[in-house]
Design a protein that fits this description.
globular; 8 strands; alpha+beta; about 170 residues; four-stranded antiparallel beta sheet
């Protein structure tokens, strides 16, 4: 309950005039980012059942990036070296120029190129609203799933499902 209260409280923007004399801005920003990540992950069907230490490891292994509406995150056929967790906003995926899926807060993507497609992106990803994503690089991603077999199994199953679904759509 305390965590829920803190998440709701910290989701408001850092206000230097109020908090500046009490805490350092960089620490406040890191805490705000951590709470955004926790909020998104705990509201995600995919992540809500993970142990808290696994969620913390995901957050600590990645970095956040603000992406404006309409920006392409990656294109189909590009080499992929990152796994993404959508913290805020919506991302649309297209294959051969045709929309195939849209993900919102808590959605994950980029896993197919890390598991099944020899490092190639199988679809393009474009933001349809202003977004914040948590990006986990390939090396850190493999370290995390190497230590957490439950998470590895879940992500691999999702990747296989999407990969096979993409084959059907491309046919």
């Amino acid at each position: 309950l305390l965590l829920v209260y803190l998440v709701k409280y910290v989701l408001f923007q850092y206000q230097a005039n109020v908090f500046g004399p009490l805490i350092k801005k960089d620490k406040a920003f890191l805490q705000q980012t951590r709470f955004w990540c926790l909020h998104a992950l705990m509201n995600s069907d995919f992540f809500r059942h993970l142990p808290s230490d696994t969620v913390d490891e995901l957050i600590q292994s990645g970095h956040t990036r603000d992406i404006p509406k309409g920006e392409v995150i990656f294109n189909e056929g590009e080499t992929g070296a990152s796994f993404y967790i959508l913290l805020q906003g919506d991302v649309e995926f297209s294959k051969n120029g045709k929309p195939i899926n849209t993900l919102g807060q808590g959605g994950v993507f980029g896993e197919i190129s890390l598991f099944y497609s020899f490092g190639q992106r199988t679809a393009s990803a474009r933001t349809t609203s202003d977004c914040i994503v948590l990006i986990i690089q390939r090396y850190d991603f493999y370290k995390i799933i190497g230590r957490n077999l439950v998470l590895a199994k879940e992500i691999e199953a999702l990747a296989l499902k999407r990969f096979n679904s993409g084959k059907t759509r491309a046919a």
